[in-house]
């Protein structure tokens, strides 16, 4: 936030108000964060250390030990996490040991209620060496390491950064989100060039290529999909527009009595952002007629059958459009749902191609976060099929972070040990995966983008005993 390197601005306190100005700027950001109460903000800044708390630092020959290089997580008017840089580079253009005290010498890191429990923090040099990143930072719950950097540009530096990130990911079994400063400071140029280490962008690009080539080689110029206002259909719509062009993609909104107004508004905002065509066909009259006709025929309904028939009405609408216009129907299910059978066969599972077939739900969120034209409301809302009042995916499934870890474990994709919570859910998830085999074998094709996909990598008979 204050720029880097600040050199001696944080040392010569009688010459400059640098530390006071930095503190005031941080306070201003904290206050402004109240305008977006659900947004987690990560920012770096310098902070003066309280020498009364660390008397040993008062006896050192330099005043550098009064200042720490910190990363903060801010949420709704509060600092909910602080991390102090641990590895202080002292070579080339870096002179951190002159200015800062290492976080390993302090007890200044904290995590408060409200902080993202699955995120840890690091600052630049911390990921280049073998410094301890676990203490007061990385835990069993950690999935992402957000690294704030002011890494100067030089030829070949991007490859060096990626190697450092890959090493950290392999060591801690987490995903690194690498964020870098952009601009210049005296002789140094900062090139930005942030990235996520797990190749989320590459997976997205592979899904788009898969969809584009499938359409090209199978004679489809146009595609149609259901737009629910949820994150899966939003990401598939983005992929389709990227692959085929906005004018060749149609999204059909099919609201029911259980569809929230927000979902309809979000779907229309997405379509407007993507410049794609939409049609609206409410399913309520057809749903009522189904229930009336079935009841008159002596066929009783259950909560599950009423939910599934809504999905199948939507599937029929999509296939009707396809038959009429020759468009390819895109299924919007993801790998997590396909694994445990959280879909309606001949309903939302209908389609000729499934771009997210090998993309976990947690990866769907990461991919969607890459794009500003996918509305924030879609990215932040809890996943729901909206087939019943107040329904959420979490009513029927483990948290997706846990579910995806368990599925990766069952498929042999990850060697990361399961947590106690995940171990307690293992057998029930395993049973769901087995019961869903018949659905998976009828699911549309989709691009393989992981080491083990539910396709040619998974040839399990329908009938077998666990």
Number of domains as seen in the coordinates: 2
Share in helix: 25-40%
Determine the N-to-C terminus distance.
55 Å
Strand content: 5-15%
CATH architecture of the largest domain: 3-Layer(aba) Sandwich
Provide mean pLDDT, rounded.
90
CATH superfamily of the largest domain: HUPs
Q: Which runs of at least 5 residues are low in confidence (pLDDT < 50)?
A: none
Write a structural description:
The chain is α/β, with parallel strands linked by helices and 466 residues long. It folds into 2 domains: 192 residues, Carbon-nitrogen hydrolase (Nitrilase/N-carbamoyl-D-aminoacid amidohydrolase); 240 residues, Rossmann fold (3-Layer(aba) Sandwich), CATH 3.40.50. 36% of the residues lie in helices and 15% in strands. The protein has 14 helices and 14 strands. A 4-stranded antiparallel β-sheet has the order 1-2-3-4, covered by helices on one side. It has a 4-stranded mixed β-sheet with strand order 5-6-7-10, covered by helices on one side. The protein has a 4-stranded parallel β-sheet with strand order 13-12-11-14, with helices on both faces. α5 links the parallel β11 and β12. The longest helix has 23 residues. The chain is elongated, with a radius of gyration of 26 Å.
